[in-house]
Amino acid sequence: MSYLEVIWKGIIKSIKEGTLVSKNLFPMIISIIVLVKVLQELNIIQYVAMPLEPIMQTMGLPAEFGIVWACAMLVNIYSALALIPSMLLLVPSVTVEQMTILGLIILIAHSLILETKIAGRCGLSMSFQVGLRLITAWICGVSVHLICSHFGFWQETATVLFKAGAALDFTGWVLGELKNLVQIYCIICLVMMFNKIINALKISQFVGFILGPLLRILGISKEATNIVIVGLVLGILYGSGIIIQAATEGRISRIDAFTTMSLMSIAHALIEDTILLSLLGGSLWGLLGVRLLFAISVGVSINLLYAKKQQQLELEKGTV
Question: At 279, is the secondary structure helix, strand, or coil?
Fold first, then answer.
C-alpha cells in the first residue's frame, strides 16, 4: 500500500469519525443556539447573564461571556464555540487578553457533569473535582487579567475565527448559523485527523520525555506518571480508563489516583483542546503555558497537603 493510499484512508476514516461525533453533538448544540436566539429576541439575555457578571468582571470579561462559559461547563467546548458568534454581536470588540482568559477558564472547567462522573468512577469525590476546577479556573482568569493589565500584555484586538454579521432577518440568521456549524464540523474532522497524526508521530512519547522527570519530582510515581502523560496528551477519558484499571490491579496507590486525576482535570488533551480554543483569538502559548503552569501548581499543592496530612497521622499514631 502506497503512502498516498494510507493518507487517503486516514482522511476518509477521520471524516467518518467526525461525522459520527457531529451527529451526536449537533442536536444539543443547535438547541442551545436556538435558546440563545430566543433570549436575544426577547431582549432578556442580559438578565440571564447578570448573575455571572460579578465573577466575569473580576477576570476583565463582559457578562455575556459568562453564558459561553456556563454552556462549556454544562455541555462541552464545541457548544461554547457555537455560541461565540452570537455573543460577539453583543460584544463586538474583544482583546487577545480577554479571549485568552475566556479560553483558559473554558479549558480548565468544561464538561463538568461528564468528566466529574469519570472522576467518581476512579473513586474520587465529584464535588471536590468540580470545586477544584471552578476555583482554579477563576484564580487563573483573575491572575492573567491582573498581569496583563499591569504590564500591558495582549491588549491588541483579537482575531476570532467564528463571527456572525448582524442578521437582518430570520433567513440571514439561519444561514449564518449553518455556516458556523459547517465550520465546527470541519474542525471536528480535522481534530480526528490530528489525533491520528499525533499517534503516528508518537508525540505523546516526546511529551512524556519532557514532562516525566518534572512529574516524578512532584511525587508522582513512575506508573502514575505514564498515566498523567496519556491524559495530558490524549484526554481525561483515556487517562481515567488507565487509572481505573491500575487502581483495580493495585499498581497505583489511592493518593496517586487522587493526584493524577486532579492534575489531569486541570490539564488534559493539551494539544487538541488548546488548538480549538486558540480559534477564539487568544494567545496559543498563553492557553498552553498558563494552563500547564496552573496544573503543575495544583499537583504541587495537593502533594504538599497530603504529605502534611500523612505526617499528622503518623504523629497521632506515635502518641497513642
Answer: coil
Q: Which long-range contacts (CB under 8 A, 24 or more apart) does 225-232 make?
A: 227/252, 227/260, 228/260, 228/263, 228/264, 229/204, 230/204, 231/260, 231/264, 231/268, 232/207, 232/264, 232/267, 232/268, 232/269, 232/270
pLDDT digits (tens, 9 = 90+) for 162-190: 766 555 577 877 887 888 888 888 887 88
Give per-residue pLDDT as tens, 18-66: 888 788 878 878 888 888 888 878 878 777 778 888 999 999 999 989 9
Residues 149-158: b if buried by 16+ CB within 10 A, e if exposed = eeeebbeeeb
- In what helix (H) or strand (E) does residue 120 lie, and over which residues does it extend? helix 112-121
Say what the pLDDT of residue 12 is.
86
pLDDT at 319 over 60: no
Contact between 96 and 156 (Cβ < 8 Å): yes
Phi, psi of 165 (to 5 degrees): -80, 160
Which of 294, 299, 301 has its CA nearest to residue 107? 294
- Return the ∠ at Cα 132 (arms to 68 and 160), rounded to 5°: 25
Sign of the alpha-carbon torsion through 33, 93, 157, 286: negative
Q: What distance in Å separates the CA atoms of residue 243 and residue 260, rounded to the nearest whole number?
A: 8
pTM for the structure as a whole = 0.82
Asked whether the beta carbons of 181 and 26 are under 8 A apart, the reply is yes
- Nearest C-alpha neighbor of 101 from the set 283, 292, 296: 283
Whose cell is 490539564? That residue is 267
CB atoms near residue 117 (< 10 Å): 13
